[in-house]
Structure formats: structure tokens, C-alpha cells
Design a protein that fits this description.
CATH architecture: 4-Layer Sandwich
CATH class: Alpha Beta
Number of domains: 1
Number of helices: 6
Strand content: 25-35%
Distance between the termini: 23 Å
Helix content: 10-25%
Strand order of the largest sheet: 5-4-3-2-1-14
Largest sheet: 6 strands, mixed
Shape: globular
CATH topology: Nitrilase/N-carbamoyl-D-aminoacid amidohydrolase
Radius of gyration: 19 Å
């Protein structure tokens, strides 16, 4: 492990709803939440997957095998129009908020590549100086997410060394990719970020398993979104009718390197979870299990990662 200069890290986990399908208003809300966490002297502020402008849960976008609808294309175009180009004035606004808060800010976005018309589910980390120090594009969107996001390879296994530890993470079901997790452990991750849209009970077991496997702090971060948050005027809004009012009830949590909850999952509310992490727990937890150290067998196994 790298020798870090601070043994404590105060983390703020934002469980909130964006202003769905509205980039400008969601960035306004993001900045307000960063300011709130900054006033509490958070060192690391974490937002959910696809927070800007939203995770479009419940929509088919008119996709069926062999055909699409123009109405579905128009709904998708709204998401496209409100996605974020990196870098841009949008990321500069978030970076300035991170700088004012003097904190690392990690946030999920819908990213629009200006060179083409493809959207990516991306996760950015801003430094306390307001600079983008990591951009990870979701490597494999899950299920029908593939209808709206392309496969990403930029920053596939991206970590950031801070004065309190190495931070890095994967988005939602990327966390079920064993080799991707192993690649993060290989980079010495001590605070593992897991932004998600998964609110199942099984996801909580995943958070605890990763903490035990990687002997790292795990930050699970999800949105809290209800059907009432969705704007009118979307062609496929009626597809939400059969779904529960709490479309995404949350479940954000903080887990220790020993697999124990430091902050239990929080449900059915917008909130910010705060916890001071004792980074000394990381080496303490690895005394008897270090997946890339004394508990590895490099004479038998070798992992090769193609960096982008």
C-alpha cells in the first residue's frame, strides 16, 4: 500500500433524486448538495449512478426486436439533449463546487460523446482543486440499458490516490464482474465506490461481500426516485403505471473493510449519509486476508488489464 498522510476521511453519500431529464436544474441541485456536504467538512462526496440528468428507469424507448418507434426515439433524444459533454461548462460548474467545498466529488452522469451520437453511463471524480481526475465509462450496460448506452472502455479500471487512500469503483452490475473487481484490488483501492440503480436486498449482500473480498471500505450510493418525479409529456410515461410509486427507494450504505455496516441502508427518503472513516482499518483488516498480497498466488494466476 501507498503511505498516506491522513488516517481519517469523512465521506458524504448523497441519496437524492435528480430533476429528471433536466440537466441544468439537476446540476443546480448537485451544486447545492455539494455545498451542504462541504459545510459539514466532507472529504469525499459521492453521488449515484447516472445522476445527471437521471437514470431512466421503467422506459422501453419503443425498442422491440426488429423495430423501434419514432416516439421512443423522441423520448431518447430528450435524454441525449440533457446529457453531459466532458469536459464542458457543465463539468466546470461541478468542479468549481468541488473546489469551494475542498472535497473530492464522485458523480454518475449520462455522458454524450461530442464526436458521435452515443451516450455512455459514466462516473467522474473531481479533485478538491476542481479538476476531473478520473472518468470511468460503464464497460457493459445491463440488459435493456444497452438500448441507450454504448459499451465504454475509457478509464475502465480507474483509481485516484488521495492523501487518505486510493479511491476507485465500478458502476452497478459491473460489480458482478470478478476480474474487474480484482483489477481494482490490484490497484490498492481502499475506498471502493459503488454507484448503482439496484435497490434489491441482494445488492446489500454484494456490498458486504466486496468489502470482505477487497478488505476496503465500500460506499453504496443509489437514488431515491418516485413516479411523481417524472415530468409530463414523455411519450412512454404510461409505462410507469404498473410500477410502485417508489420506483427507486434507495438503499445507500457504508460498509467497513470487515464487512460490517457503518451506516445501515437508508430507504424511501432523500438524505446525505455522513461517516468518518478510520483508514487504519484497511491494513488491520488485511492482516489475515490480502487478495493481492499474501493471499494471492501470482505463480499460478495472472491478471492482465488493458488500460485506456
Amino acid at each position: 500500500m501507498i503511505a498516506f498522510t491522513k488516517s481519517k476521511c469523512k465521506v458524504a453519500v448523497v441519496q437524492a433524486a435528480p430533476v429528471l431529464f433536466d440537466k441544468e436544474k439537476t446540476i443546480d441541485k448537485t451544486i447545492q448538495l455539494i455545498q451542504e456536504a462541504g459545510e459539514k467538512e466532507a472529504d469525499l462526496i459521492v453521488f449515484p449512478e447516472a445522476f445527471i440528468p437521471c437514470y431512466p428507469r421503467g422506459f422501453s424507448y419503443g425498442f422491440v426486436v426488429g423495430s423501434r418507434t419514432m416516439e421512443g426515439r423522441e423520448d431518447w433524444k430528450l435524454l441525449y439533449d440533457h446529457s453531459v459533454v466532458v469536459p464542458s461548462a457543465d463539468t466546470e460548474r461541478i468542479g468549481e463546487a468541488a473546489k469551494e467545498a475542498n472535497a473530492y466529488v464522485a458523480i454518475g452522469i449520462n455522458e454524450r460523446d461530442p464526436k458521435n451520437c452515443t451516450l455512455y453511463c459514466s462516473f467522474l471524480i473531481f479533485s478538491p482543486e476542481g479538476k476531473i481526475v478520473s472518468k470511468h465509462r460503464k464497460m457493459k450496460p445491463t440488459g435493456t440499458e444497452r438500448c441507450i448506452w454504448g459499451d465504454g472502455n475509457e478509464g475502465a479500471i480507474s483509481t485516484v490516490d488521495t492523501d487518505f487512500g486510493t479511491i476507485g469503483g465500478l458502476i452497478c452490475w459491473e460489480n458482478y464482474m470478478p476480474l474487474a473487481r480484482a483489477a481494482l484490488y490490484q490497484k490498492g483501492v481502499s475506498i471502493y465506490l459503488a454507484p448503482t440503480a439496484d435497490n434489491r436486498e441482494e445488492w446489500q449482500h454484494t456490498m458486504q461481500h466486496i468489502a470482505m473480498e477487497g478488505r476496503c471500505f465500500v460506499i453504496g450510493c443509489n437514488q431515491y426516485v418516485t413516479k411523481s418525479h417524472y415530468p409530463e409529456g414523455l411519450h412512454y410515461r404510461s409505462e410507469l403505471d404498473h410500477l410502485p410509486e417508489d420506483l427507486c427507494p434507495g438503499g445507500s450504505c457504508i460498509v467497513s473493510p470487515f464487512g460490517k455496516y457503518l451506516v445501515d441502508p437508508v430507504w424511501s427518503q432523500e438524505t446525505i449519509l455522513y461517516k468518518e472513516l478510520d483508514m487504519e482499518q484497511v491494513p488491520l483488516s488485511r492482516m489475515d486476508f490480502d487478495s493481492t498480497g499474501h493471499y494471492s498466488r501470482p505463480d499460478i494466476f495472472h491478471l492482465e488489464v488493458k488500460e485506456n
